[in-house]
Design goal:
heterodimer, A: 1076 residues, alpha/beta, seven-stranded mixed β-sheet, 43 helices, elongated, B: 919 residues, six-stranded parallel β-sheet, 38 helices, binds iron/sulfur cluster
Chain lengths: 1076, 919
């Protein structure tokens, strides 16, 4: 290999060693060297982390601009001797100008925007909604139902059933089919997708069950073997006895199974103890007797048979698992695409599957981006699928001969705790080979960081002592040593960068009383809570993180702390389910959707909310539910809940008040997103994770959630679980690139055929390693204080528990303290005095405790300049009530009105219009058609005919005629006006026809005509016209204003054109009919 | 205003950026002028071309809906070759997706039409790298669309306008002049119109004369002239807040400040500008809380009301008719009451159930697992037979007949008519509020647009298409709220620039909402848009920078709130409008904004929040006081022992909710089914049989019979599988049963009911009732009391009685005690035990507790007495919740909510679920 190209770097950065600093430095170096910042794609895993990198980059440069000293530090960081002011000025300006184009983002959002740009090719809708998870739209349930239906429809339910039965424990399925499917899918989906949904890796083993052994022959073999051994070694030999016992047990097993075809479970039982067990464990003696070759010979066929049966049986289960997941995945995919949604995982999968329909160039073009530099953060958490999408890009960059493009990644294999989510640390470890797989010229430069800027020396000592010699830790055995080795072989002791920091580490044993209690888990939670309380006494301003590997422990700790009066929040806050008031409100939402939900009704009924929503007995649930549904429709959910909150004044404590307010905000967001079904909304609320800015200083969370965080003090508990959790599947990968080559259902150790041992081993290593990484992550979250609570060590010197607790005990016990029966401190680094005396930590005290006084703000409504608009006086006939407008007659009436007004507008004076120049009937109809193309031609003609007929009616003619006028006149048709109302609003209107007689100044007068196409019963016209009085009065005022006329000289009339009746409306008086 | 004085405004047209600007112009015209005047024609960019230009041919512009449908048709009938270029085309029946695809592609062509380019022309440009075929394919589709449109006398409106402009003929009667008023982003068509009009056109730009060079000849701010200008927001005007909620608090404080310095606030002069409309509700609410009226002068969207919700439910039902959609539709109050009315009068007896059709349907669904519309139509009930399915059947039939005209409509027009009629029926009895009235009018207007539409090639999808289009249109319409002179208005960034305000609070000066940065676009990415002269990032930025200058110049006071996070806690970027600086000033701002501490309010500490109460307002409900207990079932004791609190809720208050959308039998119902099957052993012919096969046949036949009876001929899939798993258990049991008979055991009673008093020292006795699954008798005098158990694992007798002498389940000691009492045989040899029917057939068998001595059993009975006493005294205090099981997978059980233990359970099903049982 040639020398690695320093343009391409992989950094392995231990916890607290300034990963973000490295990333930011690298970014800055590129930009200072002239790279266009928009061509740097930097991805990480959380939005907060992305923002942190961005902020760090910007502020570092900004400080460089402002401060000469910091500028020279910046120069040093980016490998220069000095930096000119202009240079940093320029860089900062460039960065800020392109702020919205910087590609510092989460890996998910990178994929999401790619998916957006390539939506058509990927079969995604243009307005893709990305789901957090399937249950957000009920996709999980729909897919399950569809998969089940599909199986029944496909006509092979038996095969499916067999599959199911093979999956259940003990080879048959339980009462719940759905649960079993759910579990199978959850446990194995990742493997399924990592194997790209291909059957190959799942179906490699022969599934033919071998013919059963002849039971009589077997028994005979065992008995005669025992007899012949007895003959040679004597009567009291343990092996002889055991062989006889085995023969009896074999008979019993065959009887109980109902035939000679024993299943793996039967074999497991058979060989659980005894000489065969020893043979399988590779031991040479049984109960002090040596296991000779002859004994091996006797049991060999049995063992062979067991392995053959197990191989076939588990192969069948493996195949069943595949078919089950495959069927479900297909059903789900069909539904997913029909619903037009996708999760981030779907997006990545689609991108990975898409081969060739998109070229990368085209893709980046569509994204308006170019990637010349790739920077990948938290690289150990990258999943195989994600890497497969990024890999071509990385390869392209590394193979760039131009010498300009760069690759950079940073991660820490020791912090890879997201295997359950697909994170594959092997990619980081083997990156060199992966990128070089295509025979590329240059390798990666490597760098390892181990100087911690975070933790006190005492904390680091404990970490070093624990992980530096993992292999020899008494809690590590043959099963786990490989995983331990994979960490300790690459271990570099962490060095403190902040020597003066006074830390304190204590390993404590649960008090003897709790240790004896049956429920160690509960004890672990209780003592952790008590410990936190005692720490708070002296250090109320320190941030405290209480970490546990499992969620149930977290839950109990939060509850316990609250009981002790310590306000604590679960991971970054908590959920709406942790507060009575919000739970009851969610139940009210639930009740609205499900009137029969008795529990919900009960919960509301027995709470202060009951009276607020009018529920005061269980039998009113249905009617209250209906009323709630109505209210939600009318007022919206957020508003309704806000009303509840108001009405609950005096019933909410402080915490509840905060929670309900958050809930209202959340409801507003949900409503904005378009969801309004109360049950779905309640579901979304349930899932909502809350963080509480400025909230409590004690945060309790799982180790997983603590990734990327740090605390002044870490309390670690619940560490007594086994290091190895049995997996559902064993699998084997090729590294690089991480493809899954073989999958096998996890086989019980006793019956496990040697041919699958390697798969199991590699799976176990992955699992144990991740557990060790968890411990590492947990310990390294601490800045100054680290308190670890562990359960009791095994009595009678039986080695160590194979747990995190065991590892800690094994590594640390006795350090700095004398261990006695009574003391519960097993190890100590640093001194409590030093810890107490050290400078108080940050402990940000954001936000005051007092609600700000509500401000009194007077509004001057008199002087208000708010834009007002008066209602336009209707000119097209009175609008029917909308319900009626929906009816055919209402719409027809409106259409006729429109058409008629259009026709009337064309007539200036009837005298001029008629005669030779008059437009033909067809021309009129054609004009109407252009105006109202949606009506048929026959309709237009009919309207024109009616119109022409009405022109023959005296009242209509008169309105259009200049015959009776005394002076020369002008006519305005469809006269638009704008006027000011008394309230100061502006108002516009259009008058059908105004005739102004331009007589002498004193003689000027006007006639306002409004055409009405209303159908009016005979004799009702005057009364009907009354409803237009306001409208006509508005017209009168407008004409007065526009033409400078006095109201008294303006006459107004409505003309019912269909009936040829004109009704004049004088300013105040009665309407009077004029003749036809 | 100047304009109003030169008279003859009727011949003048004014182009304004939007409707609100038009109204503002009206007000300004009247401000100092006459009370009435002839207004100028107000135009917005959309209507501009037609107001001036003469038509070039007889083709009518197609409405959006019309054109979208034609696009959909054209895409649905693509030839194979073009289809290759649009992979993943939705199936034609997928109405929603096919329409949205049609819209998206039409939008691309529309943009191009406005600049007179065809897709093929774009495809052949050098910037377009690899997508050439795709552009050509789009070109073909576009041609097809135009051909189809022309056949029915239509044309795409943008294309028509663009042609009118190229022809350049000004129409007769067009206004004499055009004033372009502060339109800073006229589109390509508007620009072309301005060109054609030449001298007839005047541009009024919001800027001093000296800035004339900073605009192009259409009045657009030039990116090169604006985008590099330093920010006009002064550092002391920038306020850093954490999230929308803090922004709201800050706004209130800013307003209070203004009040302090300038006296009462004058709405309209004081304006709050909101750059991201998602913040509006938070602001409005904070204002309400604090007694400061803040309001958005735009009402809710028309699809968000009652009508919209009804139409959306209808759409779902039409697109995907099934029990789910029916249930959803029924939840619409208008539908429920309409159907209730429709079926009323038939049967008075059932009137009570009719009051709650929704609840009834839910009960039917959870009873008849997996029941579908067909089952309902056929009136099939579930196993319990207690639910009056007839009512639901009638409701469904009524609904279907209501929908019939809509579903079978052969044209868009008749579908529209049927829909109107349906809506009319739904709301006929409702007193319309103003909002509903407006929504109805909007719907009606949109439906009018649908009066004539191109014929559909798949008539089946007509109603779905209609509703999809209708809802799409209605979504764009917002209600007009009453103007409120006493409220400070919250105005969007785009309309803000026209407001004559003097004091401005700007919220959300971030790269989000209307100020947001670029979006990816699969067809016309920003760089290409810029090349083609379409609106792009740079032009938008110039527009915004200019607007900011206008706002700064106009307002005497300005506050700019920059948010650190959005409401969900995700980080935001500050807007370039506050960062546009150079050198040290820029650096200072960067440090202030990116490192500054934003305002953070503790939850519950908001202005106007009522003082919190001292104690928790919503503690878990507790049973109170003593209760009278006269009768208990045998299983009540185990339930109480598991968790007294849950026992109270579940058994005594009857809060045992079923999930209506369950897919399979839950454990209880699975157990009942198994119990009901083995009852067949009572029949004499089987009772004494020792032939496994015969027994097996009888059991399986009974199982089939029961499943058919309860779940119909086509049971839900999961139930089919559950039946199979039960079959396996029963087969194994047949052998066990045969062996029992072989061994001399004889079944004496099956499901024998038991009802005996249990004496409670010092209190009234309590009646204990239960059903003994089975009592066997042996010729040697032994009696066996056996209970069937169908849990997945065999029952372990040793777990029923703990070492300390307490029992976890009192079933067997009580049976023993009561049976002896009842039969008066104190000294009989009674063996107690279980017949387990677990998953593994090998585990099926009888286990009898031979080691239990009479003393142990007596202890159990005493324990029962103690429990009765505890219950009577109202002691249900333990709160240890039992772990949740299906069917509420992953969600807290309804009871967990009452116990307030839900949060813990839910989180347990979160990310860490992989940590299952440890080996
Ligand atoms: S096992 Fe017990 S609780 Fe479960 S279904 Fe059967 S009788 Fe009911």
């Amino acid at each position: 290999m040639t020398n690695p190209d320093p343009r391409h770097i992989r950094i392995l950065a231990s916890a607290g060693t300034g990963k973000t600093y490295q990333l930011a430095s690298r970014f800055l170096k590129l930009v200072l060297d002239g790279a266009d910042p928009t061509t740097i794609l930097a991805t990480t895993f959380t939005r907060a982390a992305a923002a942190e990198i961005r902020d760090r980059v910007l502020t570092t440069v900004a400080h460089g601009v402002l401060d000469e000293e910091k500028r020279s530090v910046l120069a040093g960081r980016t490998g220069r001797s000095a930096l000119e002011q202009e240079e940093v000025d320029r860089v900062l300006e460039t960065l800020v100008r392109d702020l919205d184009r910087l590609q510092i983002q989460t890996i998910d959002s990178t994929f999401a925007s790619i998916a957006g740009a390539a939506a058509p090719e990927l079969g995604l809708p243009a307005d893709l909604g990305i789901l957090e998870s399937d249950d957000q739209v009920g996709l999980d349930r729909l897919a399950m139902a569809a998969a089940l239906e599909e199986t029944v429809q496909s006509g092979d339910p038996d095969a499916f059933l067999e599959a199911l039965q093979s999956l259940g424990k003990g080879g048959a399925s339980g009462r719940s089919v759905v649960e079993l499917m759910d579990r199978t899918i959850n446990e194995n989906l990742l493997t399924y997708h990592d194997a790209e949904g291909e059957p190959g890796p799942w179906l490699w083993a022969d599934r033919t069950i071998p013919p059963p052994l002849d039971p009589d022959a077997c028994v005979e073999r065992l008995r005669s073997g025992a007899a012949s051994r007895e003959a040679s070694v004597g009567k009291n030999d343990a092996i002889c006895k055991n062989l006889r016992l085995l023969a009896d047990r074999f008979v019993a097993a065959v009887t109980s199974r109902g035939g000679p075809g024993l299943l793996p479970e039967d074999w497991t039982l058979l060989f659980k103890t005894g000489v065969v067990k020893k043979i399988l464990d590779g031991e040479s003696t049984y109960s002090g007797c040596e296991i000779d070759e002859e004994t091996h010979e006797i049991v060999r066929p049995l063992i062979q048979q067991m392995h053959d049966v197990a191989l076939a049986d588990y192969a069948r289960r493996t195949a069943s698992t595949f078919y089950l997941i495959d069927g479900h995945a297909r059903s789900r995919e069909a539904l997913r695409s029909a619903l037009g949604v996708a999760t981030f995982d779907d997006v990545v999968r689609l991108l990975r599957k898409d081969k060739g329909s998109l070229t990368r160039e085209d893709l980046w073009f569509r994204l308006d981006a170019r990637v010349r530099h790739l920077m990948l953060d938290e690289f150990q958490d990258t999943s195989l699928a994600q890497w497969k999408v990024l890999q071509p890009l990385a390869e392209e960059i590394v193979s760039d001969a131009g010498g300009e493009r760069t690759f950079f990644c940073v991660g820490d294999v020791k912090q890879s705790i997201y295997g359950w989510r697909g994170g594959l640390p092997g990619i980081l470890e083997h990156l060199d080979r992966m990128i070089l797989s295509s025979g590329l010229p240059a390798g990666l430069a490597g760098q390892t960081l181990s100087k911690s800027w975070r933790s006190a020396p005492q904390v680091l000592d404990a970490v070093n002592m624990t992980f530096g010699s993992l292999e020899s830790n008494p809690a590590i055995d043959g099963n786990t040593v490989e995983a331990a080795r994979s960490i300790s072989s690459q271990w570099e002791d962490h060095l403190p960068a902040r020597d003066g920091l006074q830390g304190l580490v204590e390993l404590r044993s649960l008090s003897p009383a709790s240790a004896r209690s049956a429920d160690v888990k509960r004890a672990a939670a209780e003592e952790a809570a008590a410990l936190v309380q005692s720490i708070l006494v002296d250090h109320s301003n320190l941030s405290i993180g209480v970490l546990a590997p499992r969620n149930d422990v977290v839950g109990s700790i939060v509850t316990r702390l609250r009981d002790l009066g310590v306000e604590a929040t679960g991971e970054g806050g908590g959920s709406f389910l942790d507060c009575g008031a919000t739970v009851v409100m969610m139940d009210a939402l639930h009740l609205a959707a499900f009137p029969g939900a008795r529990a919900a009704a009960f919960n509301v009924l027995h709470s202060p909310l009951g009276p607020v929503i009018g529920l005061d007995a269980m039998d009113q649930a249905a009617s209250v539910a209906r009323r709630l549904r109505m209210t939600f429709r009318e007022d919206g959910l957020a508003r309704t809940v806000e009303h509840w909150v108001d009405a609950l004044e005096g019933s909410l404590d402080r915490r509840e008040t905060g929670r309900v307010q958050r809930m209202v905000i959340e409801l507003e967001l949900i409503e904005q997103s378009g969801e309004s079904r109360p049950d779905m909304v309640a579901r979304l609320l349930e899932r909502t994770r809350l963080d509480e800015p400025g909230g409590e200083t004690v945060k309790v969370m799982t180790i997983h959630k603590s990734k990327g965080l740090e605390f002044d003090v870490v309390v670690l508990t619940g560490l007594d679980g086994n290091l190895f959790t049995r997996a559902a599947l064993a699998h084997e990968r090729v590294l690089p690139p991480g493809d899954i080559t073989r999958v096998f259902r996890w086989a019980n150790e006793t019956v496990r055929p040697p041919s699958v041992e390697a798969l199991h081993q590699s799976t176990r290593v992955e699992c144990v390693r991740e557990r060790l990484c968890q411990l590492y992550v947990a310990m390294t979250r601490a800045r100054r204080g680290l308190f670890m609570l562990v359960g009791p060590a095994p009595k009678d010197g039986k080695g160590e528990h194979k747990s995190m607790a065991g590892i800690l005990r094994g590594a640390l016990t006795g350090h700095g303290v004398e261990v006695t029966e009574e003391s519960d401190v097993l190890a100590r680094f640093g001194t409590p005095e030093g810890f107490r005396s050290a400078e108080a930590g940050v402990g940000d005290d954001a936000g005051s405790d007092q609600a700000p006084p509500s401000c009194t703000i007077e509004i001057d409504a008199e002087a208000s300049q708010v834009l007002l608009q008066g209602a336009a006086p209707s000119s097209k006939g009175e609008q029917p009530p909308p319900i009626e407008a929906l009816g055919a007659s209402g719409r027809e009436a409106a259409a006729i009105g429109t058409a008629w007004h259009h026709l009337m507008e064309q007539v200036d004076w009837i005298e001029d219009w008629e005669g030779d120049a008059a437009p033909s009937r067809d021309a009129l109809a054609h004009g109407l058609h252009r105006l109202m193309p949606t009506h048929p031609v026959s309709w237009h003609q009919a309207v024109v005919d009616q119109f022409l007929h009405s022109l023959t009616m005296p009242a209509v003619r008169q309105a259009l005629s200049r015959e009776l006028l005394k002076a020369p006149a002008v006519v305005h048709r469809e006269w638009e006006w704008l006027g000011r109302t008394d309230s100061g609003a502006s108002r516009v209107g259009i008058i059908d026809r105004v005739v102004i007689e331009e007589g002498d100044a004193s003689d000027r007068r006007a006639m306002v005509i409004d055409w009405k196409t209303d159908q009016v019963s005979p004799g009702q016209h005057a009364g009907h016209a009354e409803r237009y009085r306001d409208q006509l009065n508005a017209y009168r005022a407008a004409v007065g204003g526009l033409a400078g006329l006095d109201a008294s000289s303006i006459r107004c009339a409505v003309v019912f054109v269909r009936d040829g009746i004109c009704v004049e409306l004088d300013p105040e008086g009665d309407a009077s009919d004029s003749d036809r | 205003m100047e304009l109003a004085r030169d008279g003859n405004l009727a011949r003048t047209a004014v182009l304004v950026p939007g409707r609100r600007a038009g109204r503002l112009l009206h007000r300004e015209l009247l401000r100092d002028g006459p009370t009435f005047l002839e207004p100028p024609t107000i135009l917005t960019p959309t209507g501009l071309v037609e107001s001036f230009m003469a038509p070039v041919d007889d083709l009518l512009p197609a409405t959006d809906i019309f054109a979208e449908l034609v696009w959909r048709e054209a895409l649905a009938t693509l030839d194979a070759e073009s289809e290759q270029l649009f992979p993943g085309m939705p199936r034609p029946r997928d109405v929603r997706e096919s329409l949205s695809r049609a819209k998206a592609l039409r939008k691309v062509c529309d943009d191009l039409d406005s600049i007179g380019l065809t897709p093929a022309e774009v495809g052949s440009r050098p910037e377009v790298l690899d997508g050439r075929d795709r552009w050509n394919a789009l070109d073909t589709v576009r041609d097809d669309v135009h051909r189809r449109l022309a056949e029915v006398g239509r044309i795409e409106s943008t294309l028509m306008r663009s042609r009118m402009l190229s022809a350049g003929v000004i129409k007769e009667g067009a206004p004499d002049r055009l004033l372009v008023l502060a339109v800073s982003d006229p589109g390509p068509l508007a620009c072309a119109t301005i060109d054609v009009l030449g001298d007839r056109c005047e541009l009024l730009i919001d800027a001093p004369e000296s800035e004339a060079h900073a605009f192009d000849r259409w009045g657009r701010p030039l990116p090169e002239a604006w985008n590099e200008r330093p920010s006009v927001v002064n550092p002391e005007e920038i306020e850093l807040v954490d999230r929308p909620i803090e922004a709201a608090e800050q706004v209130l404080e800013d307003l209070a400040d203004l009040h302090r310095t300038g006296g009462p606030l004058v709405p309209g002069r004081v304006v709050v500008g909101v750059c991201d409309e998602s913040i509006n509700p938070v602001l409005e609410r904070a204002g309400r809380r604090a007694g400061v009226p803040l309001r958005v002068p735009v009402g809710r969207s028309s699809v968000r009301g009652e009508l919209g919700s009804l139409l959306a439910a209808l759409r779902e039902h039409l697109m995907n008719p099934g029990i789910e959609s029916f249930a959803m539709l029924l939840r619409e109050p208008v539908i429920e009451s309409l159907l209730t009315a429709e079926i009323a009068g038939d049967d008075h007896a059932e009137s009570e159930d009719m009051d709650d059709l929704v609840g009834l349907l839910d009960r039917w669904r959870s009873d008849r697992i997996g029941g579908g519309l067909d089952d309902l139509r056929a009136g099939r009930s579930g196993p319990s037979r207690k639910i009056p399915v007839g009512i639901l059947r009638k409701a469904l039939v009524a609904l279907e007949s209501l929908l019939e005209p809509l579903v079978t409509a052969g044209s868009h027009e008749s579908a529209a008519d049927s829909l109107r009629e349906l809506v009319r029926l739904c709301f006929a009895s409702r007193t319309e509020g103003d909002d509903l009235r407006e929504d109805l009018l909007v719907m009606s207007a949109v439906l009018d647009e649908l009066l004539d539409l191109p014929p559909a090639h798949d008539p089946d999808s007509i109603p779905s298409v209609l509703l999809e289009l209708l809802l799409g249109r209605m979504a764009r319409h917002h209600l007009t709220p009453e103007a409120d002179v006493g409220a400070i208005e919250l105005l969007g960034w785009l309309e803000l620039r026209h407001e004559p305000s003097t004091d401005l609070v700007l919220v959300g000066l971030n790269e989000s909402g209307e100020l947001s940065g670029r979006h990816s676009d699969g067809w016309l990415p920003d760089s290409l848009r810029a090349e083609l002269g379409l609106a792009c990032q740079a032009s938008r930025m110039a527009r915004d920078v200019h607007a900011m200058h206008v706002l700064r110049a106009r307002n005497r006071s300005l506050r700019a709130l920059v948010l650190k996070h959005d409401a969900g806690g995700d980080p935001l970027s500050p807007s370039h409008l506050v960062l546009a600086e150079r050198g040290t000033e820029l650096a200072r701002r960067v440090v202030d904004i990116f490192e500054g501490t934003p305002r953070i309010t503790k939850p519950g500490m908001l202005a106007g929040t009522p003082a919190p109460a001292e104690r928790k307002g919503f503690p878990p409900p507790q049973p109170e006081g003593a209760r009278e207990i006269t009768s208990l079932s045998v299983t009540d004791f185990a339930s109480w022992l598991r968790s007294p609190h849950e026992h109270w809720l579940q058994r005594m208050e009857g809060l045992d909710d079923q999930d209506p959308s369950a897919l399979e039998l839950d454990a209880r119902r699975f157990g009942i089914l198994a119990h009901d099957v083995v009852e067949i052993l009572e029949e004499s012919s089987i009772r004494t049989s020792s032939e496994p096969l015969k027994i097996e046949r009888a059991l399986l036949a009974r199982l089939d019979e029961l499943v058919r009876e309860r779940h119909g001929r086509r049971p839900p899939p999961a139930v089919i599988f559950q039946r199979r798993t039960l079959e396996a258990r029963l087969k194994a049991f047949a052998h066990v049963q045969a062996e029992l008979v072989e061994a001399g055991w004889e079944i004496e009673t099956v499901e024998g009911s038991l009802k005996e008093p249990l004496d409670i020292p010092g209190q009234e006795p309590v009646t204990i009732h239960g059903r003994i699954d089975r009592i066997d008798r042996h010729p040697d005098g032994r009696i066996r009391v056996l209970d069937y158990k169908t849990s997945d694992k065999p029952v372990e007798l040793s777990k029923k009685r703990k070492k300390d002498g307490t029992w976890t389940d009192l079933q067997l000691p009580l049976y023993d005690h009561l049976l002896r009492l009842k039969r008066n045989m104190p000294d009989a040899r009674i063996e107690l035990g279980y017949i387990s029917l677990p998953t593994d057939p090998a585990g099926v068998g009888v286990e009898v507790g031979l080691k239990w001595t009479p003393e142990m059993l007596a202890e159990g009975v005493d324990q029962a007495r103690a429990i009765v006493k505890a219950m009577r005294s109202g002691d249900f205090s333990s709160q240890t919740p039992a772990r949740s099981t299906a069917p509420w997978r992953g969600r807290p059980r309804p009871i967990d909510r009452i116990l307030r233990t839900g949060a813990l359970d839910v989180s347990a099903s979160g990310d860490d679920s992989e940590e299952g049982g440890e080996s």
